[in-house]
């Protein structure tokens, strides 16, 4: 129990929940029968497929479309959720995009797009959903970052910068919300077997895996398990942390 209701009766909102880590996170919470909100922007059919899998676990599920660069659309999403009784106790800021290329070749448009989707969306969703958590003196905000936000990566400068910003955002907001019983943490995975790795050919993937002490990429479910742990009521003393499940790649 929290001070309000059992964990299994709470609501989780997963941004970018139509595939990859987001889909695994949504299904992980659905297995408990929790209320699950799957956010997407363009992947309508993929989001519906994730929703069907979640409902097969007995969860109440809602899909919602919104551009996370737009405060107005996020407000409209929040209002729609509240009308349906899906008020998030747990917010998983997962939506994001990667970018590969030399910084000398990056355009302003590419910079703005990566920053907006990865960083601005996290800021706006946290700002607009944390008020209800504060008023209830309970909540969990979990930001999906990246190992590159900790160590940086050649040819991924703007992606590393955006994820590093999420890490700093996480640490600062955790201090701000701790007195209100709301925790804020970040999960910063290493290489994960998702569509984000589709830009690499098999030889490149094999070369990356060979650098990882565990010898392989993570499965999305392994990242989802850590997100789930941070969302538990028993994890209430863990806040402001950047936790990197990376198979020993970065220690």
UniProtKB/TrEMBL annotation:
Q: One MF term from GO for this chain?
A: oxidoreductase activity
User: Which Pfam family, an example, fits this chain?
Assistant: adh_short
Annotated keywords: Oxidoreductase
PROSITE patterns recorded for this chain? ADH_SHORT
Which SUPFAM superfamilies does the protein's record reference?
NAD(P)-binding Rossmann-fold domains
A GO term (biological process) for this protein? monocarboxylic acid metabolic process
- Cite the Ketoreductase domain residue spans from the record: 10-190
**InterPro entries this protein is in?**
KR_dom (IPR057326), NAD(P)-bd_dom_sf (IPR036291), Sc_DH/Rdtase_CS (IPR020904), SDR (IPR050259), SDR_fam (IPR002347)
Q: Which NCBIfam families match?
A: EF_P_mod_YmfI, PRK12826.1-2
The record's PANTHER family line, in alphabetical order, gives: 3-OXOACYL-(ACYL-CARRIER-PROTEIN) REDUCTASE (PTHR42879), 3-OXOACYL-[ACYL-CARRIER-PROTEIN] REDUCTASE FABG (PTHR42879:SF2)
Q: Which family does it belong to?
A: Belongs to the short-chain dehydrogenases/reductases (SDR) family.
What is the name attached to this protein's record? Answer: SDR family NAD(P)-dependent oxidoreductase
Q: Which organism is it from?
A: Paenibacillus chitinolyticus
């Amino acid at each position: 129990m929290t001070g309000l209701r059992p964990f299994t009766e709470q609501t989780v909102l997963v941004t970018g929940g139509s595939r990859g880590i987001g889909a695994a996170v949504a299904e992980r919470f659905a297995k408990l029968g929790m209320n699950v909100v799957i956010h997407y922007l363009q992947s309508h059919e993929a989001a519906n497929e994730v929703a069907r899998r979640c409902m097969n676990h007995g969860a109440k599920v809602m899909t919602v479309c919104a551009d996370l660069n737009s405060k107005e659309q996020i407000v409209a999403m929040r209002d729609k959720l509240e009308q349906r009784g899906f008020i998030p106790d747990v917010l998983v800021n997962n939506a994001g995009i990667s970018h590969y290329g030399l910084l000398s070749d990056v355009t302003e448009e590419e910079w703005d797009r990566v920053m907006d989707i990865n960083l601005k969306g996290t800021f706006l969703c946290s700002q607009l959903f944390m008020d209800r958590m504060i008023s209830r003196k309970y909540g969990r905000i979990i930001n999906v970052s990246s190992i590159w936000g900790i160590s940086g990566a050649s040819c991924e400068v703007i992606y590393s910068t955006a994820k590093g910003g999420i890490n700093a955002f996480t640490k600062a907001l955790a201090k701000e919300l701790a007195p209100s019983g709301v925790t804020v943490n970040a999960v910063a995975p290493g290489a994960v077997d998702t569509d984000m790795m589709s830009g690499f050919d098999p030889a490149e993937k094999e070369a990356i895996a060979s650098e990882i002490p565990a010898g392989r990429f993570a499965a999305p479910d392994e990242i989802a398990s850590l997100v789930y742990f941070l969302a538990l009521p028993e994890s209430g003393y863990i806040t402001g942390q950047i936790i990197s499940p990376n198979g020993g790649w970065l220690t």
